[in-house]
Amino acid sequence: MKKTIVLALITLAACQSNPQEEKAEQAGLKSELIEFELGQNVVYGVLVKDFSEEADQKGYSVKLTLNEKVWFDTLYLDLSANQEVQGEIIFSEAIVDDMGGAKFEVNTFQLH
To answer: 46: domain CATH number?
Structure first.
């Protein structure tokens, strides 16, 4: 009987949500390739989202490669405590084509 109760308590504890784990899941950098209508053209951009438990300032170096062309840009974000913040970079010369093949890379750096 005691083993059943202990097993039930362990199972119940494992099923409960852990706030620290939830914050850890939210934390970190997320980025995605986006398409943006700019005049008569559709161009590529990169959406950057980040989360921090403490207020912080970060920089993001973004590299976009399309066919044999490469573009670089930098994004700066002021992160508020416990809030996801986002920004985007639009590459006005990186015109979307049917061949696809656009790749991007995002690296972070501290501003202090």
So the answer is: 2.60.40.10
